[in-house]
Amino acid sequence: MALDPETLTLLLETVRRFVAEQLLPHEEEVARTDAVPAGLVSQMADLGLFGISIPPAYGGMGLTAEEEVLVTLELGRASPVFRSIAATNIGIGSQGILIDGTDAQKERFLPKIADGSTISSFALTEPGVGSDAANVQTSARRVGDNYILNGTKRYITNAPEAGLFTVMARTGDAASGSAGVSAFVVEAGSPGLSIGRPERKMGQQGTHVADVVFEDCRVSAENLIGGVEGRGFKTAMKVLDKGRLSISAACTGFASRILDEAVSYAAERIQFGRPISEFQLIQAMISDSHTEILAAHSMILATARAKDQGLNIGTDAAACKLFASEMVGRVADRNVQIHGGAGYVADFPAERHYRDVRLYRIYEGTSEIQRIRIARDILARER
């Protein structure tokens, strides 16, 4: 463990209090205005929440996987929007540099990611390339000491706010497959880099998604992650393995919060002269939700501990992401049902939760991709 038990307990209590006192009261405002107040982002940075996965040598906390999951379970109780602001710095935006970057790249980029002064983003998905990540079409052509990037990335989280992007681009020919994909750090403001109009989304208002367009964008060869071509796909997969564990924890933390709200409403809502919490079919929904949350919690902690032991968690991280993302959808659906008509109107948060959690089954690998990954890995072991 990176922290002693007393310090870890204090950190978790601080995050829990911050969520309750600062984030939850602003959720409705954020959803209405589609913007997170800058003061809240600054407070998150002051608490170190942008750097929990980055080593102390670069200004972060350097938490273990288990500790990071425990923090995310607490932060995840708030709207997914708040987690999303910090998530790219904690996970997919920084981990490519941390895992495979050169010492110079780590020293240059990680401190600003850790303190939250730079928002990082991960640019893999393209208009014609979603789950088929090995088929990246954005090109990177070497010209002297630079690479010239051309192509479009789509649905890139935090793109409008990002100060730098981890970009997957093809340095090999069209037939090279995953072996021709390389990873680059591209800084915002680079000539030839532009950001599209933020998309209108079903939920998670306040976190922004947009196209990232490269038109003869010149990037120094020093920004090729690891300094070696052809490793980008492997870097992306390692980054996504870790990100899936973090998303699983966020799903589970939010499901716990939703269940708390469902229980409170059921205890207060009177029908037929008594609280609806006394009806067995309501109790069944509550018990099913609690059981699934407990199962997800156990899976995530076990997988995080395995990662801390140096084991390969790719298959189990996919299983966690599959189960937790679908579980939180079922919990949110039951919450709407428990609220009845009130669950379908915007006066209660149940309606917003239902929309917000739907994205979890899509990004960083759809449920279908997780199933394919899990089955492929298990069958490969048998062979």
Record the SSE blueprint:
Elements: H1 5-23, H2 27-33, H3 38-46, H4 65-75, H5 80-90, H6 95-100, H7 103-114, E1 120-123, E2 139-143, E3 146-157, E4 164-170, E5 181-187, E6 193-195, E7 209-220, H8 232-268, E8 270-271, E9 274-275, H9 280-308, H10 314-339, H11 349-356, H12 367-382
Parallel strand pairs: 1-4
Antiparallel strand pairs: 2-3, 3-7, 4-5, 6-7, 8-9
Helix pairs in contact: 1-4, 4-8, 4-9, 8-9, 8-10, 9-10, 10-11, 10-12
Task: Describe this entry's structure for a reader.
The chain is of the alpha+beta class and 383 residues long. The chain has 3 domains: 5-114, Acyl-CoA dehydrogenase/oxidase, N-terminal domain (Butyryl-Coa Dehydrogenase, subunit A, domain 1, Orthogonal Bundle), CATH 1.10.540.10; 120-230, Butyryl-CoA Dehydrogenase, subunit A, domain 2; 234-382, Butyryl-CoA Dehydrogenase, subunit A, domain 3. Helix content is 50%, strand content 14%. It has helices spanning 5-23, 27-33, 38-46, 65-75, 80-90, 95-100, 103-114, 232-268, 280-308, 314-339, 349-356, 367-382, and strands at residues 120-123, 139-143, 146-157, 164-170, 181-187, 193-195, 209-220, 270-271, 274-275. A 4-stranded antiparallel β-sheet has the order 2-3-7-6, with no helix packed on it. Strands 1-4-5 form a 3-stranded mixed β-sheet. A two-stranded antiparallel ribbon has the order 8-9. 48% of the residues are buried. The model has no long low-confidence stretch (mean pLDDT 93).
Instruction: Using the CA coordinates, give the radius of gyration.
Output: 21 Å
| CATH C-level name of the largest domain | Mainly Alpha
Category by helix and strand content: alpha+beta
Helix content: 40-55%
Q: What overall geometry do the principal axes of the alpha carbons give?
A: globular
What CATH architecture of the largest domain would you give?
A: Up-down Bundle
Distance between the termini: 36 Å
Spans with pLDDT under 50 lasting ≥5 residues? none
Give the CATH superfamily of the largest domain.
Butyryl-CoA Dehydrogenase, subunit A, domain 3
User: How many distinct beta strands?
Assistant: 9
Number of domains: 3
Q: List the helices and strands in order.
A: HHHHHHHEEEEEEEHEEHHHH
Give the strand order, joined by hyphens, for the main sheet: 2-3-7-6
Write the CATH fold name of the largest domain.
Butyryl-CoA Dehydrogenase, subunit A, domain 3
Largest sheet, if any? 4 strands, antiparallel
Average of the residue pLDDT scores: 93
Helices, by number, come to 12
**What fraction strand?**
5-15%
